[in-house]
Amino acid sequence: MKAIVMTAVGGPEVLVPRDIPEPAIATPTQIKVRLHAAGVNPVDTKLRRGGLFYPDALPAVLGCDGAGVVVETGAGATRFKVGDRVWFCHGGLGGEPGNYAEYTVLEERWAAAMPPALDFVQAAAGPLVLITAWGMLYDRGRLQAGQTVLIHAGAGGVGHVALQLAKLQGARALTTVGSAESAAFAKKYGADEVIDYREQDFVAETNRLTGGAGADLVVDTVGPEVFRRSVDCTAHFGDLVTLLDPGGFSFKEARLRNLRIGFELMLTPMLRDLPAARAHQVEILERCANLIDQGRLWPHVGQTLPLEQAAAAHAQLETGHTAGKVVLQII
Question: Which fold has domain 129-263?
Answer without folding.
Answer: Rossmann fold (3.40.50)
